[in-house]
Amino acid sequence: MPMAIDISNKTVLVTGANRGIGKVLVESFLEHGAAKVYAAVRKLESAAFLVDKYGNKIVPILIDLADPESIAAAAQTATDVEIVVNNAGVQKVANPLAEEAIACLKFEMETNVYGLISMAQAFAPVLKANGGGAFVQLNSVVSLKSFCNVATYSASKAAAYSITQALREVLAGQGTLVQSVHPGPIATEMTHASGRADIAESPTLVAEAIIAALQSGEFHVFPNDTMAKGMGDAYQSFGKNVIEVSFD
Fold it and tell me: I need a labelling partner for 203 at 20 to 30 A (CA). Which of 66, 192, 212, 227 fits?
């Protein structure tokens, strides 16, 4: 049976909490009854507006996914966390033949993949101590299909998706629900930079999908934006019958 998470009165940590999907996630968790949200950001002052709005329900905390020491320190501080949402990421615009492609991929891997691993290593013991909880990873549709103008970003997200699959198996033993979230183009600065702002949809769709999936215990989460919904419908059988099946 899938593990289901009731977010009422839970303590949540969201990386990249000061803008885009992360900001909407913070707001949505509180609106759905979370007791407290650690707003993880690279600059603490960037979360001040959330404190102004929500008071002591918001705790700004320093996390830079490219800095493992900041992640380890945050895990020592946020010892009451029950749901971790690793939303933050970086993106470069580069196709595989671009002169800077390898440098772009190295940059993206450091945050999008190595940062994910560091987050899991630091917070898995915290989640275990607090009853299991959930670890949610934002992976994007580009983790399933590469888009040539963001090919290196797509590759980093494909690697992150692979790591997330392994985390699902590893953390199941401690009762931690792991989720892989695959939104399409969402109205954020990152999407605008990639040239897809014309088809971008609301970040609220992502937040709603994550919260619903926490309550149902699903691993794959495809928000209700147009691209993610279409891709999720096509991928559903493979996801259920290959990705979510143990071959041990």
Answer: 66
Among 78, 72, 85, residue whose Cα is nearest residue 60: 78
What backbone torsions phi and psi does residue 62 show, to the nearest 5 degrees? -85, 120
Distance, CA of 233 to CA of 50 (rounded, Å): 35
Residue 2 covered by a domain: no
Q: What is the pTM of this model?
A: 0.93
**CA 210 and chain centroid, separation:** 10
Chain-centroid distance of CA 162 in Å reads 14
Query: Is 26 part of a structural domain of the chain?
Result: yes
- Could you tell me if residue 172 is inside a domain? yes
Average pLDDT (49-59) is: 97
Q: Is residue 126 part of a domain?
A: yes
- Structural element, H or E, at residue 76: helix 68-77
Task: Indicate the helix (H) or strand (E) that contains 41.
Answer: strand 36-41
Residue whose structure tokens are 């609106």: 31
CATH of the domain at 219: 3.40.50.720
Q: Which domain, by its residues, includes 60?
A: 11-243
Nearest residue to 128 (alpha-carbon basis) of 75, 51, 187 = 75
Tens-place pLDDT, residues 112-169: 999 999 999 999 999 999 999 999 999 999 999 999 999 999 999 999 999 999 999 9
